[in-house]
Amino acid sequence: MYTERHTVRARLATFAATLGLLAGGGALTAVTAQAAPAPPAAAPTPTAAPAVDNGLARTPQMGFNNWNSTHCRAEFNEAMVKGIADTFVSQGLKDAGYTYVNIDDCWALPQRDASGNLVPDPVRFPNGIKAVADYVHSKGLKFGIYSSAGTKTCDVQGFPGGLGHEQQDAGLWASWGVDYLKYDNCNNTGADAQQRYTAMANALKATGRPILYSICEWGENQPWNWAAKTGNSWRTTGDISDNWSSMIGIAHRNQGLAPYAGPGAWNDPDMLEVGNGGMTDTEYRTHFSLWAQMAAPLLIGSDLRSASPATLAILKNTDVIAVDQDSLGKQGTVVSGSGGLVVMSKPLADGSRSVTLTNETTSARTVSTTVEAIGIGGASSYALKDLWSKQTSTTTGTISASVPAHGTVMYRVTPGAPVPPPAGVNQLSELAWTSAINGWGPVERDRSNGEQATGDGRTLTIGGTTYAKGLGTHAASDITYHLGGTCRSLRVDVGVDDESTAGGSAVFRIYRDAALVADSGPRTASDPPTRLSADLTGGTKLRLVVTDGGDGIDYDHADWAAPTLTCGNGPAAGTHALSDLQWASAINGWGPVERDRSNAEQATDDGRTLTIGGTTYAKGLGTHAASSITYYLGGGCSTLTTSVGIDDESGGANGSAVFQIYRDAAKVADSGRLTGAEAPRALTADLSGGLEVRLVVTDSGDGINYDHADWAAPTLTCT
Ligand code: GLA
């Protein structure tokens, strides 16, 4: 019995295990030891507007925070904050996208004033906070502040927290011109996290000032399940430290949370340590690459006033920043991660992907993947740009690099011109998609979605009906195929796979370019398959989109079953000798199917004039049982007439066969058993509306010897 690993906790454990992290992974233990999460609330999807609804952080926030470089030390003061703002401008960081200059804990005095207001520390900030905010604003930058959703902040000196003072504090900050709040979790008295963080969200909203809201409860209450409604980002882990194992451990834990991030609502794996000295530049490049690949907030945590050229070069890598800031707002996912060689893929708005090849081992290694594995395809060539070395190259499919110990090679992979599907009837699972995005694990071909690795699902099954062909997805999913204007229709059965035993609901939508051309409405795990038919005429792009049914993505194993794509035109209007048309496929018992000749079992054209019971035929198909020939009709043909029989070359009464004609899956003509002794038999088949016609010859159950089977003068009428 299949049991869905449906909690994020379990998913993260499974995920981490695939990265080989479970043994001794201290940071991970903190995740796996947590209590089971509350029932999930609605998760963000590409279509769900974040309820925080402040219009901010449509791409992950970028800026500075002093904590990682100063903690509470005295050098955290007005001069530093102003100096950082100056450096943002003078060193081009502002131009690179860094906007917020934020202060952390220890900015206030330990006591509120007589009116209950927070008081800036007069030694650190002799002119108050508003003066600093004004200075930051004068540089065209934004200013952020810090507090805790508790009675006190985190520092041992115990500065006042915001719990119970939400509106008063928010009002004060707004009056100072604060643009950003980091709201910590210390001294929270055990009060409900959602209530504490929502109280401050409401207070910020009530100020009328747009204030980016950064929730910092360290992932303790599974904020990915609720915080998108509350804030713009949420910390997913405890604090980062300036060393490799801390940084990479946090990356592992944040990597598995990709489905929950989106515009306005980001997973936050904590602030950057780049430049603080505890890692090599190679390790810092990995840190920066992974944070960008995970669409993480990029908050510089080193003292920029004394940053080295190497540090600035990392922080100002505009190609990597562009990945973080991509407007599609997708967090990258791990596509493979065995033996410390971790490949991540992030879909980008222009149809390209960024891919990180990270070598977590302690010696140089080759890290490889493929365009298929990173979720793109359908082109004959792909351009690669190395976002650190800036070198460009092309590939037909393999992506590979020698990566130093603890290093990351990061490519932007851009598909070349896509190739349209062949004319005829195609199963989508046999075509290359141009892009596939999936909620959990990869999109599966001809399997349901098992959430983790390729091929881990089962036979596609909706309401007890099984399907050999199709796509197994998990909401939220978005798959694109290039049509190039050549296709006509898609017919598909959709539904939640039966493996979702504990529920699940999903909505299936088909788009022809920007036009919605089919919509299933919400389908639940107990529904039978729903047939969707979409008119694709003239469309350049086909998109299959699955969103959750409005109740979060848990259990939403969503199947596109037997998705049948019809492309190209069928035969022209009029009457055609079938042997003059090109078949879509031909299978034959001996030798090739012959056009206008009988079947002599070996090479092409080795037969004779088609002859049945002494009657000769100039046109037709010479086959040998068992045979099956398919022609594409495209829905535009009406009838096939033909004579059938065993060719006289079989000699006397030798040979026997059955001739059958199929219009798609329906048998529309059957000759019954015919032996070599019999005269030709006439068949007429109604092909109206059929996408394909299939001519089948069986041996009639007595073996295929002598079964030289002729389709004599088969004539197709199309309108
Ligand atoms: C917590 C937070 C840190 C920092 C400190 C300040 O540890 O997670 O990011 O803000 O508090 O005391």
Automatic annotation (TrEMBL):
InterPro entries: Aldolase_TIM, Galactose-bd-like_sf, GH, Glyco_hyd_98_carb-bd, Glyco_hydro_27, Glyco_hydro_27/36_CS, Glyco_hydro_b, Melibiase_C. It holds the Pfam family NPCBM. Keywords: Disulfide bond, Glycosidase, Hydrolase, Signal. GO terms for molecular function: alpha-galactosidase activity. The keyword Transmembrane does not apply. GO terms for biological process: carbohydrate catabolic process. It catalyses: Hydrolysis of terminal, non-reducing alpha-D-galactose residues in alpha-D-galactosides, including galactose oligosaccharides, galactomannans and galactolipids. Residues 422-567, 572-718 form the Glycosyl hydrolase family 98 putative carbohydrate-binding module domain. It is an enzyme of class 3 (hydrolase). SUPFAM superfamilies: (Trans)glycosidases, Galactose-binding domain-like, Glycosyl hydrolase domain. It comes from the Bacteria. Residues 1-35 form the signal peptide. Its EC number is 3.2.1.22. Belongs to the glycosyl hydrolase 27 family. This is Alpha-galactosidase.
